[in-house]
Amino acid sequence: MLKFFKIIAFLEGVSLLLLLFVAMPMKYFFSRPELVSSVGMAHGVLFIVYIVLATVLFMDKRWDLKTYAFICLASIIPFGTFIVENKFLKEA
Question: Which of 60, 56, 45, 36 is nearest to 8 (CA)?
Answer without folding.
Answer: 45
